[in-house]
Design goal:
alpha/beta; eight-stranded parallel beta sheet; disordered C terminus; globular
Length: 323
């Protein structure tokens, strides 16, 4: 960086800040124990946990994860220790190490989210909640994130029991209503948005003549998802710029493998970036990507990471990117 000023990597988290914009996408880092062997967790901006559910579960039958061109399909199911196990074993371990923890929570009923939020509010080490709205509601069959009104209700219920805790709503890329759902979540009090979850997809095992995943369909992550995720982030940031919803931070995820990928999301409108399936290939990826992002920002003359947020919108005239 000869002769150049160090880039300020401070990034927003809800109404506060964290030292840098790098996080982990829910699921891929578990609860941090395995990743800690390769990456100092307190050097991440935040760590987003595996989704915690009200009760412990073993998850789906195998095979749960299969590689596909430019990505990974997974159908892990509800494997988690339950909120009691998380509070007893995982959260104290993270807090002792100074990890800025964002807890992903989920459930099949609105009441599940509210119950979990109430249990986690005020706990040492919890810096925020991420609401996994991609799970299907028990009485609806469709994901919460497919319906703006239902998503509004979930966010409002969580904010009612955890008013002082930053809450991010995690949106799905393939509902066809991402901007409407984002606006509903922000109207309900969401302090930020996580974008995006995996996209529904399938692969067929040619020899077995059946779906490669035991569950049939699963979630597509990895580089194949990134252009879709970038478009979703761009659309929602454009709606914020146009005044169709209040501006809140966006944590972007979907195929981030390099600092260039992180910068692409940032220019589209993200003010934080999470690394997911790349951790399966390179568990040192978060800090490597952070160093690469710093270099990309420095090369382009940015003094601060936040100066790059949303700059791609200056050259377009429509929210979908058409000139």
């Amino acid at each position: 960086m000869t002769g150049r000023q160090e880039v300020d990597l401070t990034a927003p988290l809800g109404g506060g800040t964290v030292p840098n914009p790098l996080s982990t996408a829910a699921g891929c880092a578990g609860f941090g124990r395995e990743l800690a062997r390769f990456t100092p967790l307190d050097q991440l901006g935040t760590l987003t946990t595996r989704t915690v559910l009200p009760r412990a579960g073993a998850g789906a039958a195998g095979p749960r994860v299969v590689p596909v061109p430019a990505g990974v399909l997974n159908a892990v199911g509800g494997q988690n220790p339950g909120v009691e196990g998380f509070l007893r074993r995982e959260l104290p371990w993270l807090a002792e190490r100074g990890v800025r923890t964002v807890v992903s929570i989920g459930g099949h009923r609105l009441e599940d989210f509210a119950e979990l939020a109430a249990r986690l509010a005020g706990r040492d080490g919890v810096r925020g909640l991420e609401l996994n709205l991609s799970a299907p509601g028990a009485d609806r069959g469709a994901p919460f994130a497919a319906n703006p009104a239902v998503s509004y209700d979930v966010v409002a219920a969580v904010k009612a029991v955890a008013p002082g805790l930053p809450v991010y709503a995690k949106l799905a890329p393939d509902t066809g209503t991402v901007t409407e759902v984002a606006a509903a979540c922000v109207a309900a009090g969401a302090d930020g948005l996580s974008m995006v979850n995996t996209a529904r997809a399938m692969a067929i095992d040619l020899d077995a003549r059946r779906p490669a995943l035991a569950a049939g369909a699963g979630g597509l992550s990895g580089p194949a998802l990134r252009p879709i995720a970038v478009h979703c982030v761009f659309q929602v940031h454009a709606a914020m710029r146009a005044g169709r919803m209040p501006a809140v931070p966006i944590l972007a995820m979907g195929g981030v493998r390099t600092g260039r990928d992180a910068l692409e999301f940032t220019l589209a409108g993200a003010s934080g970036v999470a690394v997911g399936s790349e951790l399966l290939r390179d568990p040192t990826a978060p800090l490597r990507i952070l160093d690469e992002l710093r270099a990309e920002l420095t090369t382009r003359g940015f003094a601060a990471y936040t100066d790059a947020v949303g700059l791609a919108h200056r050259t377009t005239t429509t929210e979908d990117g058409r000139q």
